[in-house]
Amino acid sequence: MIIGKPFLTAEQIHEKVIELADRISRDYAGKEILAVGILKGSFMFFADLVRSLKIPVVIDFIVASSYLKTTSTGEVKIHYEIKEDIAGKHVLLIDDIIDTGISLNYIRERLLLKEPESLKICILLDKKERRSVDVPIDYKGFEIPNQFVVGYGLDYDNKYRNLPYIAIFKKER
Length: 173
Ligand code: 5GP
Ligand code: MG
Ligand code: MG
What we know:
This protein has 173 residues and is α/β, with parallel strands linked by helices. It has a single domain (10-147), classed as Rossmann fold (3-Layer(aba) Sandwich), CATH 3.40.50. Helices cover 22% and strands 38% of the residues. It has helices at 10-27, 43-51, 102-112; strands at residues 2-8, 33-39, 57-68, 71-80, 90-98, 118-126, 139-143, 149-150, 166-170. Helix 2 links the parallel strand 2 (33-39) and strand 3. One of its GO terms (biological process) is hypoxanthine metabolic process.
């Protein structure tokens, strides 16, 4: 397998994270948010984003999967569910990437049933072309073409998540 040179460098990602954190801090000024990371993919983005927020933050996670290697199975599995009571809270869902939208839509609808005061979504990457379910995205880092990317939390077969940058992944032919 081949990992191309950085598609988004650590520096580009860092700048975007700061920009998103500033917007979020302004929008929620005077409020506390419950930041919910969708693992495993969002772990790096989540950690960088929350440490740049200037508002009170409570943290929780959901562990979900829908992907096998490089294709979505279209079926979302929840392996770990939020432990915080979200009723009346300002929930900010944080994920690495939105592709078909199936996973985020499923998670969003589940959380809405628990009646949070508000629910917004923040994602680093958007593969717009591939969308099959419409999900409202409130904060978005980068729009990217329809190519499989790894690094900065994103995996291929659970590998490459530790890369500090994002690269396009190509299978050997
Ligand atoms: P969706 O349900 O929107 O199709 O898929 C969302 C999930 O699929 C993401 O949270 C991510 O885990 C995985 N995914 C989608 N596109 C990519 C990609 O280009 N690279 C990697 N590593 N994972 C992806
Ligand atoms: Mg994910
Ligand atoms: Mg994955």
